[in-house]
Amino acid sequence: MASITNYFFSMFIFIVLLFSQNEMCHAARNLMEIPEKETPPHMPTPTLPEPTLPPKPEIPALPKPTLPPLPKVELPPLPTIPKVTFPTIPSIPEIPEMPKIPALPKPSLPPMPVVPTVPKVALPPMPAMPTVPKVTIPPMPSIPTIPSIPTIPSIPFPFLSPPPAATSP
Questions:
Q1: CA-wise closest residue to 33 among 165, 129, 169
Q2: Which of 30, 81, 116, 140 has the most CB atoms around its CB within 10 Å?
Q3: pTM assigned to the model
């Protein structure tokens, strides 16, 4: 926990120091105050003549070689595979039928008990709510006024204003 707190504290200090540097702001202001200079007119680019290249040399055609005919290769005949005789599968004996389950007699249940009826009871009436007497609140005391403090005349701070431009117009 302490390491995370130290990490965030150090990041906070770093960001405060990063934003507290005003040199970049002053440099940007100086750049904004410099008047733009007119750019000189562009010189026309000269046109170069097309280079002339010598013609490509011709490649002589090569004669096609004649190849001797390939000999025919005869493959020996494939051997014959003998047929396999499988033994006969014995027959599966039949499963005897299961005996039938005898039917069970249905049980006789006792009759349901009769729920007695509950007589209706008359509730007594609710007592009347007591009335709350009205109370009058005394008026708020007046807040005393604070005398005004005379204002301090503004003092110019030269170190807070941006520096003058580097070049004069």
A1: 165
A2: 30
A3: 0.16
Would you state the structure tokens that stand for residue 151, as one six-digit string?
């204002």
The predicted pLDDT at position 51 comes to 83
User: What dihedral angle (degrees, nearest 10) is formed by the CA atoms of 100, 101, 103, 104?
Assistant: 170
The tokens describing 39, both together, are: 């750019």
pLDDT at 24: 58
Count Cβ neighbours within 10 Å for each residue of 30-63 and write b for 16 or more, e otherwise: eeeeeeeeeeeeeeeeeeeeeeeeeeeeeeeeee
Residues of the chain with pLDDT under 50: none
The 3-state DSSP class for residue 12 equals helix
For position 1, what pLDDT does the model report? 57
Amino acid at 169: P
Per-residue H/E/C for 96-144: CCCCCCCCCCCCCCCCCCCCCCCCCCCCCCCCCCCCCCCCCCCCCCCCC
Q: What are the pLDDT digits (tens) for 5-43?
A: 888 899 998 888 777 765 556 666 677 677 777 777 777
d(CA 91, CA 145): 119
Q: Which two tokens stand for residue 43?
A: 């010189």
DSSP codes joined into one string, 51-73: PP-PPPPPPPPPPPPPPPPPPP-
